[in-house]
Amino acid sequence: MKTDDNSDLNHLLSNDELLNVGRKVFDLESNALVHSGQLIDKTFIDAVDVLFTCEGKTIITGLGKSGIAGKKIAATLSSTGMPSLFLHAGEAGHGDLGVVSSGDVVIALSYSGETHEVVAIIPRFKLLGVPVIALTGNIHSALAEVADVVVDVSVKKYPWPYGLLPTASNAVTVAMGDAFAIALLMARGVQEDDFASLHPGGLLGQKMLAKVKSLMHSGDELPIVPLKARLRDVLVEMTAKRLGVACVVEGGKKFVGIITDGDIRRLLETDPNPLELLAETVMSSNPKTILESTLSASALHEMESLKITSLPVVDEEGSLKGLVHIHDILKLEINR
Q1: Which end of the chain lies in a sparser environment, N or C, as judged by fewer CB atoms within 10 Å?
Q2: Which H or E run contains 215?
Q3: Residue 275 carries which DSSP code?
Q4: Contact 250, 275 (CB under 8 A)
Q5: For residues 51 and 92, what is the distance between their CA atoms, to the nearest angstrom?
Q6: Domains plus CATH for the chain?
Q7: Taking the CB of residue 130, how many other CB atoms lie within 10 A of it?
Q8: pLDDT averaged over consecutive 10-residue blocks of the chain (336 residues)?
Q9: Is 173 exposed, middle or buried (0-12, 13-18, 19+ CB in 10 A)?
Q10: How do strand 245-250 and strand 254-260 relate by DSSP bridges?
Q11: What's the confidence (pLDDT) of residue 63?
Q12: Can you give the three-state secondary structure of 158-213, one letter per residue?
């Protein structure tokens, strides 16, 4: 298939015009997301509060393109530990309402707020005492009138042909679902361990569930020097183990400091004869350490935050057990 201006495709637009159309859609959707994000108000808090106190399931219902957005929202909420499912509004009226029970929460999606199938099933939720959160582009619609919380996901009306399909509005609806999920995750104090247990498969689970103990360098691979080691011996150990650091120990096992290749380079620039210096005078004392049971994701976050490439691994008594390098974690993705 040709991609230059002499393309033999039989369409009415030039390649430049096609590129402009694609870029225009991205501009419209990104602008809609930014604008809608600025409009988030107390209704967002009200919706999160309702979801936070939910003792049952979160039911997302909708039809058409809104229904597809609803499936994504349900999947995202489930991944944070909130039992959630999508209820097709058209099928709900023909028996599927049985999945809804007291204690649940419903998120109803309809951009117009007038989707008959969605509005028609709201009374059933009311009979069960199930609160309804409406995500709609029309806060004065039939759906908005019967909902307990109404969250505005309206977007600017765009001219033909950009306003023909629910592109920007669907993007905003999905983003609102993501905002709910993140807010709830943080409000509930979900930790990486909790989140990882919900993602045991795939790269995310592999990277997050792997413990530092299974990745760290230990035994003969571990670069160790005693407090009184001279810098020339430290260099030999660092060169042999090729991890860019040397762990300084006292009494053969208690971790007391670390020396990096950066430390040595700086010394060589300022000291005319640094090789006779002792490790205890060169090392960084009380550096950051982690435990063997730490998740690899936490170790990676720690190293990226501190802008370092290695973390000594110690036990509860402070004895050196190993060293984990950032590459040991990143290679999980490479090997996947």
Answers
A1: N
A2: none
A3: G
A4: no
A5: 21
A6: 15-190 (3.40.50.10490), 212-335 (3.10.580.10)
A7: 21
A8: 52 87 90 90 96 94 93 90 90 82 95 94 92 96 96 83 78 95 85 55 56 89 93 92 92 90 85 84 89 85 87 92 87 54
A9: buried
A10: antiparallel
A11: 94
A12: CCCCCCCCCHHHHHHHHHHHHHHHHHHHHHCCCCHHHHHHCCCCHHHHHHHHCEHH
Q: What is the dihedral of CA 65, 70, 71, 74, to 10 degrees?
A: 170
Q: 39: part of which helix (H) or strand (E)?
A: none
Per-residue model confidence (pLDDT) at position 336: 45
For residues 122 and 61, is the Cβ–Cβ distance under 8 A?
no
* CA–CA distance, 265 with 184 (Å, rounded to integer): 47
What the block records as the tokens of 248 is 């300084």
CA pair distance 314, 61, nearest whole angstrom: 50
**pLDDT of the residue at 67:** 92
- Beta-carbon neighbour count of residue 247 at 10 Å? 27
Element (DSSP H or E) covering residue 107: strand 105-109
CA distances from 32 to 25, 156, 256, 275 (A): 11, 7, 54, 62
Residue 301's pLDDT is what? 83
**Consecutive H or E run containing 313:** strand 310-314
pLDDT value at position 130? 95
Cα distance between residue 4 and residue 138, in whole Å: 44
Q: Distance between CA 132 and CA 130 in Å, rounded?
A: 6
The C-alpha angle 19, 23, 28, rounded to 5 degrees, equals 150
User: Residue 170 corresponds to which tokens in the numbers above?
Assistant: 């669907």
CA dihedral 147, 150, 156, 157 (to 10 degrees): 0
CA quadruple 183, 188, 193, 196: dihedral sign: negative
Q: What global pTM score does this model have?
A: 0.59
Strands 320-325 and 310-314: antiparallel
User: Based on C-alpha coordinates, what's the Rg of the chain?
Assistant: 29
pLDDT of res. 191: 61
Two structure tokens written together for 81: 């530990």
